[in-house]
Input
Amino acid sequence: MRSRLVLFTLSLFLTFATLGCTSKPSTNSAADNSASSGSSGAAPGGASTGATGTDASGTSAMAASNNSAAPAPKPPIVVPAGTSVTVSLGSALGSKLSQPGQTFTGTVAKDILVGTAVAIPKGAAVSGTVTDAKPLGKMAGGAVLQVRLDSITLNGASLPVQSALRTFSVKGKGKRTGVMAGGGAALGGIIGGLAGGGKGAAIGLLAGGGAGAGGAALTGNKDVVLPVESAVSFQITQPVEIKQ
Output
């Protein structure tokens, strides 16, 4: 009986001992796995946070650098009132050829300077309006042509301008007398051209000598004619601001 009790006791001891040895490695393994998982989760998280912080700092520094490197905008160029703009006409205009309200086009004949800067370059496109056109016979005293400059195209954009009206008129009796208002040729030159060469000589004289100052061409029937490419000067009445 005693031997059985001893054997039973030894069996229980061996059983508990075996269970104890088996459970300890399992606990350690679980702990190791937990520690490994924690460290592996923490490391990427920490690295990601550090990388994000670095990227944000780099972006801020780059933005600050770009802002400091941006050049200040240039002030606009202002063409003062009273400036003369000489226009080369793109088509012929005349007291008999044109109608009130008709638009015309042309180009700037020479650079417009403000100080040493070219505000309006030669060749810039312009547009204007015929404000009045009366051929000979429709009004007492002669023929009248009146034109106005409306806009100048710069950098692809149409820039409105205000200019004084240019009025050209011709008065007289017969083919051999005439007086020009608004032109630059002398009366003696007009009469000489009419007497010496007729209509062609007068046109050549006026287009070459007077057109640069806004002169009109005078034909034999006393209508005002501005041939194509005639140079007509307009005076700006309000300042024109041009962005650079």
Summary: Residues 211 and 231 are 5 Å apart (CA to CA). The chain has two domains: 1-70, 77-242. Confidence is low (pLDDT under 50) at residues 38-43, 45-49, 174-216.
